Structure formats: structure tokens, C-alpha cells
Amino acid sequence: MFTENSELTQAIRAKFAHVDSCPFQGPRIFFENAGGALTLNTVVETSALFAAIPDNQGRDNPASHALVSKIKQAKADMAVFFNAPGGQFFVGESGTELTFRLIRTAAMGTPDGAVIGSSVEHPASRSAAQHWAAMAGKPYINVPHDDATGQVTPAAYAALMTPEVRVATILHTSPVTGIANDVAGITAAIRAVAPDAYVFVDGIQHASHGRIDIASYNIDGYVISPYKLFSRHGYGIAWASGRLSALPIETLKGGPAGNWEMGTRDTGSYATFSDVVRYFEWLGQQVSDETAPRARIEAAGAAIHGHEKQLTDAMLFGTGNLAGLADLPDVTILGGADNPDREGLVCFALKSVPAAKIVEQLNAQGIRTHLRKADHYSGNILTPLGLDAAVRVSLCHYNTMDEVRTFLTAIKDIAE
Q1: Residue 262 structural domain
Q2: Where is the Aminotransferase class V domain (predicted)?
Q3: What is the pLDDT of residues 75-127, one digit of tens each?
Q4: Domain count along the chain
Q5: For an engineered disulfide with 382, which of 99, 137, 318, 374 has Cβ 3.0 to 4.6 Å away?
Q6: 197 backbone dihedrals φ, ψ, rounded to 5°
């Protein structure tokens, strides 16, 4: 979608900090976006601005009023970006912390029953669901994912659903395989059997690839980590439905009912997310004739998806006279080489070269990737495939075909 070295490509890359060099390593290609995407320059500036302001919200002075206004604006921006006309948004320590909090509220606030989730999930939601199911005296139902595709399907959930399910968890996209799941379809399968279940979605890996549409999912909770969506570390964002917020939640005695926010908020967290939304609107304006903010965000998401597919297809199947990863002997491509639900990520292993050595040699050539080990983060995906480790190459829309070519040239030498 973004032609090589076009004005738009250069304009996109100019909006991000450290796009082609690391302050500690020097020049490098950044293919570690699933571990944390590049940061918008506007986010850096906004963070510095609000970090220096001494005032709190809720006071009768101009600075305090401005802080409250920024938070209100950011929540309105979140509603548009996520397409969530109802419910409420709030920030917390991290995406993982918010995931535990929402799942805890649902598990502890519902009558006897069961909690259901899948084996494909990141431990943020899987650990939270299993822990709070045990604390609430509810059995945990494990839905197995398909090892070949790296996905879990609506049919797999439907096969294990019971009317006693009170809480369900869904992973939108895997940070190990990069394969997305059918959130709306899974939710429909859950609600066909347990219509009143509280449904939670981990959107942390999905977010940077665009196309979040809460209104179409029929869910109760959605969480992201903004440092994986072009913002910064130090906060997570949660959306909670009105009925989830009506359950007993931790709040100050005598305070507003249904208030998830604990203590003084970091205005900079909210303000930096507004920067992200402005960026998506800008990108949508470059790739479409849309004028409404939500329509521009949707156009940006479609363009992002199209460009990232071009890059991952080239990485898998080759480009020009360069062979792709799928052409290498004894290669394992997690999720399968030809998977239409892939989102900007390729994870692979070679029998001939240990994954750790591949990551090390790529890094020595200025190509940043990541080693996924069969540990508590990735063992649920890697162990059934007989892998102790794999190489994760994760892209975002600011990456280029030139960078993919450099990667493929390096991999060819390493494999030989």
C-alpha cells in the first residue's frame, strides 16, 4: 500500500523516533515490534510536557482544568478509535494489570459457574482466568487451539461451552504466531449457550495492526498496551462495558459508583493516546478521501493491513531473486506459511541452526528480532510443535521492502 521510498513512506517514518537507528547500537532494522512498537515523536513531546506539570486534576485553577479537559478529550478519542459507543475507558499500570483486574471483577462478581478460555492465550489473560477461577471456586475450561494454524475457532469454543459459563476470555492476536482469532465469531458461540457470560478480549498484540471494532464484538472488556501501539511504556488502557462496571469493583467508599480509576491519573497517559489517534486520522487522510475521524481510522487500518501483508508475504515466499523463509530446508513456520489471518509477524525455526544463534547473528548485522523460548510466555505454542525456541520477526507499517530484502539476504547466509 505504501510504495517503496515514496513520499508517504518517508513521511510515515519521519513521524517515529529511532526508526532506523538505536541510540545504543547504531543503525539497525527494527523487526521487534511485537515486543514494543516504535514511538511517535509527538508522544515523546507530549510525555515531556505533562511530566513537568505539577498540578493535579480536580482543583479550581487553569492548569487543573486543562488536565481534566485533556483526559476528557482522550476518552472521547478512545471511544472513536475503538468504536465503542458505550462503556468506559480508563488507564492502569499495564495491559497485564488491567487484564487481571477486569477478569477478577467478572470472576468474583458472578454466581457459581465456570470460566472458559483457550490454550492459545498469552499468560496475561490465561493466568488471570485460571487464578481467579480458582479463587472464585469456578472450574476452568480449556479450549485447545489448533497447532497447525495457531488459532482457536468458534467451533472449538462451542464444543466445550456449557450454560454455566460465567466468564470467557479470548485472545485477539497471538504475540507468538501473529495469527488473529475470530473474536465476533467466538463471542457468538459463547453467547449462544451462555448469553449472560462476561466476555473479555486481550487486544494487546492486535492493536498496532489497526481495525479494532468493539461495537461489533458483543463483549464486556478489551485491553491494550499502548507501548505496542506507537505510544510509551508505563500504562495500559481498558474498556469495560456498562454491565461489567455495575459489578462490585474496588473503589473509594462514598466515591462515584462504577468508577474504575484509582487515585490521581497520569494525564500524560491519556494525552499520549490522543497523539496515537491523531496519527491514525492523519494516515487515513493520506490513503483515502474520508473526512470523518472514524472512517479515516478504518482507512488507516485497512492500509496498514495491506502493507504488512505485502511485507510478510515477501518474507515468507521471497521477492525478486531472493528466496523466502518458506523455501528454506527444514523450516517450521508457526501458524503455517499460507495463513490469511496473519498480522505483521512471522515466527520460524530451522532444524539446522538454533534459534538463539539466528537472533544473535541477525543482531550482529543490525537486524533486531526476538527469541521466543518454550517458557511460561510461549511454551503453550512452541512445546506442542516440538520446538524449544523460535525466531520472531515482527513488522509494522513503517517497515519497508528494502528492510525485508536485507533480512532475507542475511537469513540466506545464516542458513547456509
Answers
A1: 45-278
A2: 29-406
A3: 999 999 999 999 999 999 999 999 999 999 999 999 999 999 999 999 999 99
A4: 2
A5: 374
A6: -65, 150
